[in-house]
């Protein structure tokens, strides 16, 4: 029994993807024109255009009006979950700023904060009652001017209200851990739930994604805790091709059990 041949467009995608990932076609290199690809493969314009659309949706190439298609620079920021909030790390107290600078990128971000009543979902995450006031801050993070990440952050005003850090971007320090330290709230852990899903139109626009082929994003639901109290919850979204996640998880030291000891 022979395996079924892939569709014609998939053959073009697989070939170009392989050449890009292997480095045969590097960042900034121009792809063959649509006409050249038609001549090479003997496929119709529709098939070639569909293949290129899929490669754009994967973040591997970008189209330049009047010039053609080029391999994208895929330099990724590295997000080390285990160490990014360590208090003794040098540099900015913003984890995003440290991630960007480590990759040789200039970090900037846009933020807008307002008081809102907690929805049932947010109240459940923060251990509040529905309708309790929280500070909602929306963020768009950029590295060298390129959108990298979106976030919606929620903090209970029962904790931050009336303090110098009530508005996250207007206080004396930035970054959730450093801000909470400033008012004597000692964050000792955080929990992240990671999934992937298609970007909604608003996210695709904010992240400047090519929506013609559909784009998937990594979505993280993060909660910071001080003891048993949730002090911040955030919905974080970024394209998988712009960030690399690294999780370092400690393992309990091994010791021989009584059952394994020889008599």
TrEMBL record:
It comes from the Bacteria. One of its GO terms (molecular function) is DNA-binding transcription factor activity. The keyword Manganese does not apply. InterPro entries: Bact_HTH_transcr_reg (IPR050679), Chorismate_lyase_/UTRA_dom_sf (IPR028978), Tscrpt_reg_HTH_GntR (IPR000524), UTRA (IPR011663), WH-like_DNA-bd_sf (IPR036388), WH_DNA-bd_sf (IPR036390). Keywords: DNA-binding, Transcription, Transcription regulation. CDD domains: WHTH_GntR. GO terms for biological process: negative regulation of DNA-templated transcription. It holds the Pfam family UTRA. Gene3D superfamilies: Chorismate lyase-like (3.40.1410.10), Winged helix-like DNA-binding domain superfamily/Winged helix DNA-binding domain (1.10.10.10). PANTHER family: GNTR-FAMILY TRANSCRIPTIONAL REGULATOR (PTHR44846:SF17), MANNOSYL-D-GLYCERATE TRANSPORT/METABOLISM SYSTEM REPRESSOR MNGR-RELATED (PTHR44846). This is GntR family transcriptional regulator. It comes from Micromonospora sagamiensis.
